[in-house]
Amino acid sequence: MKKVWHKLLLGAALAGLLATAGCAPLAQYVDPQTLRPLSRAERLFREGERLAQAGKVAEANLAYRQAIQVDPNFQPAMRRLAAAYEAQGRRRLAAYFYEQSLARVPEDNEARRALVQVYLALGKADQAAAAGAPLGLTPQPAAPAAQPPLATLWQSFLEEQSVSGLAVGENNVFVTTQGGALYALAKESGEVRWRYAPRDAKPIVSAPVYSPGADQSLVFFGCENSTLYAVSAADGRKQWSFEAQAPIEGSPAVSGDSVYAGAMDGTVYAFDRATGGLRWKFAAQGAIQAAPLVAGDTVYVGSLDENLYAIDAESGAERWHFAAVSGIESTPLLDEDLLYFGANDSRVYCVNAKSAREVWRYPTGDSVYARPMLQDGRLYVTSVSQALFALSPETGELLWRYNAGTFLTCRPGYDRGTVYLVASGDPHLYAIDGATGAELWTMDTGDWPASDPAIVGGVLYLGERDGTVIAYRLP
Fold first, then answer.
1. Of 3, 71, 118, 315, which is least surrounded by CB within 10 A?
2. pLDDT tens across 92-116, in order?
3. Within a domain: 77
4. Which CATH number characterizes residue 52's domain?
């Protein structure tokens, strides 16, 4: 009897101790109700709850994910992630976590009803019916008027890491991911043909570059591990690699038998395409984050040292530089003698490619990261100011402006008079009339787009944050 009283007294004392402000750290490790030590997954989950209550959604989701990494069967975190992703419009991820949650707690009818609605929003009527069957639900598919404006040819899930970029070849779509892998997908079906994942390459933050060749077709990409890789497009085998002195975050550029790449220490490299032999180096004074542009015998590249450089493609000697007011993270566009590029000083510039003389500039309200696009006599520019601008390429005069709901950091696509636009943290694909700027339609893609829309042969390819690549048939 004394032992029982001792336990009760000890429990009461410990509970009182946990309730004091001075013992808050201890309360993170012990349940104050049962005095049971909390598992690491439970501690992470509680931290996620605290962050969610503070309005820190991204941090809360990270804590929930960490809880699942520690305990893959920890259902409360799955449930929270499903609801959080649904609220963000990331419906494929929401469906995945609702499925995982219901596999562990099938009687969670609220989650089941939510999963049915998510399936319907994704256009998966059969899966919605199967999910709703235990509750006697008979969900109805979307009416014809609500059907997506573009037909999905295929969709391929690669890994639970964001897509970084795409390159479309004759038979394959090449995809880099922040998980540190390069994939080759069959262009017609989305089937994975091969995967190449070099050690310590995570993350890859730039798009791959496909280089067809009569002797051998290659795919190039750079990594945070400071290495540039050349991989066979046929089978994914490494042909050569080069280790720089700093991460390579921008895509390389290929012209003839040379490959050009910039690194975060400001070095621009030129390599032999076939062997990887170093031909020359050029030193800027700031990081290179965008892909170079190679046109004729000149390499154009922007730097965070606020300059756009023109470099001799054969020797690496500087021909000229143009000074903006802030760093340049936009790959230039060349049309005849005019160069167009954006900068972090909230401007887009037009510069004469021969004389380096400024022709015009236009204020965009915030940084311009994406390469401008010239189509049908209009220059299209996206800005972090949440706007798409159509400008006169000759004068910089504003033709029209389209206001999005969030940041625009990707280059749009264009096909037969329509601009196809994606925005940060927004699951929609937007179709904009290229002549007037009028919104034609929007379409839910199921998650946040992570790549520039790539349009080839009447098909739009799009990489998403959840690791999915989608191919849409254009009208």
1. 3
2. 999 999 999 999 999 999 999 999 9
3. yes
4. 1.25.40.10
